Amino acid sequence: MAMNPSRPFIERPVATSLLMLAILLAGLLAYRLLPLSALPEVDYPTIQVTTLYPGASPDVISTTVTAPLERQFGQMPGLGQMTSSSSGGASVITLRFSLGLSLDVAEQEVQAAINAGSNLLPSDLPMPPVYSKVNPADAPVMTIAVTSPSLPVIKVHDLVENRLAPKLSQVDGVGLVSIAGGRRPAVRIQANPSTLAALGLSLDDVRSAIASANVNQAKGSFDGAQRASTIDANDQLRSAAEYQNLIIAWKNGNPLRLSDVAQIVDDAENLRLAAWADTTPGVILNVQRQPGANVIQTVDRVKALLPKLQGTLPASVDVQILADRTTTIRASVDDTEIELLLAIALVVAVIFLFLRSGSATLIPSVAVPLSLVGTFGVMYLAGFSINNLTLMALTISTGFVVDDAIVMIENIARYVEEGDSPMEAAFKGSRQIGFTIISLTVSLIAVLIPLLFMGDVVGRLFHEFAITLAVAILISAFVSLTLTPMMSARLLKPETEQKHSRLGTWFGEKFEAMIQGYGRALDWVLDRPVLTLLGFAATLALTALLYVVVPKGFFPVQDTGLVQVITEATQSTSFDAMSERQQRLAEVFLKDPDVDHIASFIGVDGANASLNTGRMQITLKPFAQRHASATEVIARLGDLNRQVPGITAYMQPVQDLTIEDRVSKTQYQFLLSSPDSTDLQKANDALLARLKQLPQLADVASDLQNQGLQAWVQIDREAAGRLGVTVASIDTALYNAFGQRLISTIYTQASQYRVVLEAASEFRSGPRALEGLYVPGSTTTTGATGTATTTTVQVPLSSVAQIVERPAALAINHVAQFPAATISFNLPPGVALGDAVQAIKAEQAKLDLPISVETSFQGAAEAFSNSLSSTLFLILAAVVTMYIVLGVLYESYIHPVTILSTLPSAGVGALLALLIGGLDLGIIAIIGIVLLIGIVKKNAIMMIDFALEAEREQGLDPRAAIHQASLLRFRPILMTTMAALLGALPLMLGTGVGHELRHPLGVTMVGGLIVSQLLTLFTTPVIYLGFARMAQRWRERRGVKRETRAAAQHRGPDAPEIADPAAPLAPAGPSLLRQPGDDGGAPR
């Protein structure tokens, strides 16, 4: 007889109880220490490098700043993808590294590459390239608005930049604190070019005069015999007033002061930046986390610091948190925890219903929480977090965990009902069922193994899910083999003492009747095996058909209560016009009842590429107070957008899972790139026009912006040479007048401020202003004595150059150093990502795109395409692993096939449920199906184990054995399935925050369980019987062959005794052949 693993534990109750206490304490301690998050950590190490060069055109930025840096970055080992955007005044390069590389190593590589490329960068860059460890596509974890009713924005900005931002940047986990609407204080000098020209001076003379008048240098010190002293002077000019009186030249014996030729004001360093909190102008702080940092911990640290920092600010400054990504994450995790508790309660209720005894129900209600709490200990050791996926794994595992306990208790309870004492029943029952529990556990874990081998992002996501589930199942098996039989032996009451309630008695009678009904139905089915097998074949075919029909998706769109908006006006829109439209749009959006706050900003900085685009982040009201989901609100706001002419808003709900590394107007990205920018434009326009007509896509948009206006200065080099004008001086004159040029620095104790030079506003309104601009030239006159004297003269720009207006790119995007365009799209309601991807591929195949153009999906769309190929392989791998494991356990090639025959029924139910629920077959649903494989085959294992035992121990023929086993196991099979079903039910019915993630898992589990339950109760016995008969026939045939062979061998040694080979007519052969028959017929 098989050994009994539970025996020592039944005999040592104290040891067992303390062991369980240890597991419980370890789990509870770990639970306190486990971090919270939305999803497992799957961030690619990403670093963003920003270089600001005010006044430079996209073309100049792209060639002088971006290209030299990209060339260095392109050589870094471990670089996954490099994308860049060069726009007027800003270059932003995003570097995404491979998942395996640590962020610190990537950071060192980036720093080294910046150093190596710095010698090719322009000499007058105001600031070197700055890198930050942040993924630009990952929405800020917090948005903080700082406004003041009385202080001007530049003052507020100064306070924020010197007091708030540096302290927040120090917080662990923060990657970047960007200040939107950053109006840093500066002294602005607005010169009058025509007055200067009349005096024979140029803007460059003003620039050099200021640069040499505002200095702050080392000046040495004295060290005499007795005393030492340092030297300093009033060489710094600190305010607009001090610059007024600055003498820039002497003309005819009179001083020419700066105030005579220019207006000097204290204003912002860059006037073309603005931000609003709701509708109030202010400064907006966007706190972005480092890739891989825990969102909740990072935000908690920032929130703890804010009150302290707020205390250092003047009372008239308001600090308000406009958006916080963690509120929904916390709510979602809380909701999942409630669903977990609900699942436990439902599961315990099922047991009570079936076993009709309080003491019997107590046992699994101890076993389940124990296994789940124990799992936290291992999660902590493995470095996991409490997140939606690990909690889903635990919720689903309540159904699995209770199985082992149910199987054990039910078996012991059956012996008690037959009249054994509880102790005896515990020994008998646990010995009989020990092997079944071990094989259930091992085969369940075998199903999860393939999840661990999924590659890339998806694999990272499900790693935690699979391991959490596997650990819960292992602990539960251990508990079921130790604690459960020990408690059963002591808590179950002998049958004679049982008192059932009226309800219990009624349920018991009804259940008996149900079992008898099942027995009759089973007989009917076993008599018609062909029909049943045809039904089985139909199920198989239907599964395959449904798999093809069901729409494929990737990851459900989450509602995080935040909406990211990119606004866009026509490409030649100026800053002032954009500012007015952006404010109008925000006002209209704020009227929507579900919108809580809006943070919006415009202007060219690291986050926003051009003057005609803006950004908004809309915070929706808390989930409980809202009437509509984020996607419905977006649709409503889209209608409101039409009330504001001249501006379009592209909206997408912020997601917890960001696989992208660049911001696009809408959710999913499709990339075109080509070394030839004209080919790129042709392909982009053709594809965009076709995709906009597709019903499978919504909000199709491209980020290619090449219709901006450009004033092209066509220099006549002959004329310039004749008039002594150099090309460099023309560029300098233009930059001085129109580039918000930073010409000098004012150093203070805490910070540094710039001096900005520009032409006065009436001289820079449009291309006509160029006519009033003068450039320094030189004329050489030879005097009477023959000595040549060179004098500087002011030459009108129009005499050495022509001005042409023409279209130009507003932003130049590169991917891997080649020009690129991103076409992005949203999914209309009811369309799966799979359909959209197929539609795009079909359209692309129809179009004859230029050969140089390469296309690819990016981010989530790309991960989806990759995961498609792996899903089928995943399920196949799960099946193969199970076959191997079961084959090893049963020492048989056939039994595993019987067990695996239950799988198609699971698939049918799950896919049908998805179709009915209008869901797509995404990653979460696939996991559901993999788990179903694990649950459904359990029923088969339980039947077959008992049938085999009945054949072995009681000598029944296969039909009687499987019939008896099916009836005996009907109760536990029903109980375990009900338990698993009720474990998944809260996931299916939940409507709380983040239910979009959990819903598909619940639907697949419930659908699959109901259908498979009905089918497997009948198909498994028939298939088992079919195989048993086949095996018997095969054995008989083998037996006949063996007997004939044996007869031939018998005759060998007898030969010498018989003289005449022809003589022996003794019926040796036949009698030997008859033996197996006699043997079989004999009663045992």
Any overview of this molecule?
The structure is a single chain. With 1084 residues, the chain is an alpha+beta fold. Helix content is 54%, strand content 18%. It has 30 helices and 31 strands. Strands 1, 2, 3, 4, 21, 22, 29, 30 and 31 form a nine-stranded antiparallel sheet that branches. Strands 14-13-18-19-17-20 form a six-stranded antiparallel sheet, covered by helices on one side. A hairpin with a 4-residue loop joins strand 8 (221-223) and strand 9 (228-230). The longest helix is centred in the last third of the chain and has 60 residues, at 995-1054. The radius of gyration is 40 Å and the shape is elongated. It starts with 6 loop residues before the first helix and ends with a helix. 48% of the residues are buried.
Concise account of the structure shown:
This protein has 1084 residues and is of the alpha+beta class. The strands form eight sheets. Strands 1, 2, 3, 4, 21, 22, 29, 30 and 31 form a nine-stranded antiparallel β-sheet that branches.
The number of helical segments is: 30
Kindly report the oligomeric state of this protein. Answer: single chain
Helix content: 40-55%
Q: Residue ranges: pLDDT <50 for 5 or more in a row?
A: 1053-1084
Which strand-content bin applies to the residues? Answer: 15-25%
Radius of gyration (Å): 40 Å
Estimate the mean pLDDT confidence: 88
Sheet with the most strands, sense and barrel status: 9 strands, antiparallel
Could you say which overall geometry the principal axes of the C-alpha atoms support?
elongated
Structural class computed from helices and strand pairing: alpha+beta
Whole-Å distance between the termini?
20 Å
Compute the number of strand runs: 31
